[in-house]
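Sharing a chain and its predicted structure for anyone who wants a worked example. Both blocks are below, sequence first, tokens second.
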Amino acid sequence: MTLKTLLMGAVATAALAPAAFAERGADGEVSIIYWQAPSILNPYLSGGTKDIEAASLVVEPLARYNEMGEMVPFLASEIPTVGNGGVSEDLTTITWKIAPGMMWSDGTPVTSADVKFTAEYCMHPEGGCAQAAFFDGVENVEAIDDLTVKVTFNQPKPNPYGPFVGGQSPIIQAAQFADCLGAKAPECTEANFNPIGTGPFVVDDFRPNDVIQYSANPNYRDPAKPAFAKVTFKGGGDAAAAGRSVLETGEFDYAWNLQLAPDVIARMESAGKGKAIAGFGPLVERIEMNMTNPSPDLPPETRATVAEPHPFLSDIRVRKALSMAIDRPLLVEVGYGQAGKVTCDLVPAPAMFASGDMHCATQDIEGAKALLEEAGWTDSDGDGVREKDGMELSVLYQTSTNAVRQDFQALIKAWWEEIGVETELRNLDASVFFGGDPGSPDTFQKFYADVEMYANTFNGTDPQQYLAAYRCGNEPRPESQWQGENINRFCDPEYDALIDELARTGDIEKRAEIAIKMNNMLTKDTYTIVPLVHRGRVSAHVNDLGGVKLNVWDSELWNVADWYRIN
């Protein structure tokens, strides 16, 4: 479905689950395992997928994307379009109607005041909202009546479906978060760990980085759902243990993100307890280059900005040489098999938004060496490490703890050392690395390393919000509680101008052209981001769990209300 078609009014309707439910909670308990343990249940204070998805059982957006990438209403009564009058003819406003009868889990009604407050919460200048890009260009949010909210943009917005759409931008309850605005946001532990929501489940007990216990929401809008009375959401461990717990032993019902070699998954499946499910969306494993100096000798505010450029990664020749030394086809073979593809794009899907440029696909060790020589980095003392002006070419390379990622680290370290770059490896527990704790030095947002590796993706089929994350000023910093999506501290006024141009461009072909240009600015033009593998999302469920529809365009748990036990 094109953006033009959506705006004109041909919207998808929510897919209905099989008529499998006799009454709410009749199927007992379902167990889910995410080997990256959630550390918070507020998506606005974490960019970590595991936190966003754990929260999606509780807090919901006005609309989200189904397994086909089509937008469907959740709390809204319909998707606003130009055709139905919900989007203004000049594309400067979008008006949402909350479906009548929507209730918070505490029994109070959902109103436009909650939607308005959610925008105020994320847009607060001292709040450090992890999802600020969704509100890019929002000028005003007003409650027209109890069930109507109007969003006004600062220019025509052909893609107005950013705020309140998808699992990354849910509605939070104004009453619960009223005292949590701005710098107070991270201090509201009760609200951040136990949000009141509209989803099919409520939080009974949350132990950060460990286990979450949920029970069926008594005020959920469909009296026959969810089929399960309880959810146990286990976090931690590793991908292999998670896979075994579903595919080999059946101890858990659903395992997320089986980042394992394909032959390992196949052996697990042969036990006959469950099946792996996979799909390709825009998920990319990549290396991020730090554009600022991460030296511990500098104060935090300096390490967070380009005021102190990186001592050697600020030279594009060094960044490009590091990319050239990598054998991506081997990484795909070792780590993912058929569940991976070589990519040089940050946005590899949908296809129309991908450049398809494969400039990085072939390893070039000798070319990388020559580029470093040109940049003045030589091994004058023969110790295998290049130096320049008394500084050795030495990088700290960090990522989360995971077997595939450690295999990648070992291979890349060998290639980098082959070209004369000393490489120190660090791997951090995923619950810490992706946790967003402003007091921790080890989060991916703080980026206290030279390079780091991880994967993330975006909701829906349009990359506008994803690419807008790299606007100047979106970098995590002390005054934003270390939240922010621009972790590289990339800043280019020309790129910012393209963000604005993309936001006001309606023609889908032209949008793709702009998005590809932005992608190239981050990748092959600057090597700020070094893509490695276009990853398929691979998860697994036991054979008797019904209703699961793997969704690569939104939270994997987007339709957990429709899950049921097959008798």
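Comments welcome. The first strand starts at residue 29 and ends at 34.
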